[in-house]
Amino acid sequence: MRRILAGAVAVAALLSGPAHARQAQTPTSTLAQACEGKHGWNDPAPPAHLFGNVYYVGTCGITSLLVTSQQGHVLLDGAAGKAGPLIARNIQALGFKLGDVKTILNSHEHGDHAAGIAYLQRVTGATVLAREPAIATFERGHSDREDPQLLELPEFPPVAHVRAVADGETVKVGMLALTAHATPGHAPGGTSWSWRSCEGTRCLAFAYADSVSAISDKVYRFTEHPDYVAAFRTGLDTIAGLHCDVLLTPHPGASDLFERIAGRAPLVDAGACERYADTGRGNLDARLRAERDGTAP
Predict the structure, then answer these.
(1) Which residues, in sequence order, are CB contacts of 227 under 8 Å at separation 6+?
(2) Which of 183, 211, 220, 254 shows the shortest CA–CA distance to 110?
(3) Max CA-CA distance within the chain?
(4) Over the stretch 104-148, which tens digit does the pLDDT of each residue have?
(5) Considering only CA atoms, which of 147, 157, 148 is closest in space to residue 119?
(6) pLDDT category, 81, cuts 50, 70, 90?
(7) Which of 85, 116, 191, 254 is the most buried (most CB within 10 A)?
(8) CA–CA dist 247, 207 (Å, integer)
């Protein structure tokens, strides 16, 4: 019996993250207060513990998440270029070592979420993973005409040695297991991620769902790219179908994260992914109508 109890305690510790890091937790209310009225990509934010082994380490305007284990950690997104050092300091402020970040994942290949990745790859030594449509953009540091927003996107520091991850593939680091879901539309390589996190015996399904806004530069027209629109709709269906107790998004405001961690809305909401997908469908339908009636490029 003692062995069984000891094993259960060990598993809980592995899922919840190292004890030294738990002692350094910043209350989520501190994060919400620090970012009140701030939305800038590089506005510094304190790190905060969200649940279990999941930590917010991004800025006030851009999400970056750290998912931890005793065997190594996973970082989701690197925010804008100046934010790379801010994210690194947040990881260290929580009590984690940069060298224990083993894998860096990405939501999509735009500079506001990818420009800090080259720096973070360099200081952690982590492997960077992305879906195939995003890899060439990472390696060049800029998009091509496949991206609806090409002419509006700034270049960012190229990322070397990006490994491809397939739709439906589960990325494992120790006991961590995060699954990739192809959700193109906002960008060709758009990817959402899902995993489970536990606090003791309570486990929640997390979804880091990619951006769903249908925007472009002044040249690109979605109505001229029916295959892309079809893939966009399929990705929205994928997000709607995710097992999703906690929704997180690349822009925290898109899922009202700071409102939720401040206690003004529930953090846990099983219907959030479906509603988020519905918002994306509304965005896409509105854009297509605007193109057809001439009020959009």
Answers:
(1) none
(2) 211
(3) 72
(4) 999 999 999 999 999 999 999 999 999 999 999 999 999 999 999
(5) 157
(6) confident
(7) 116
(8) 5
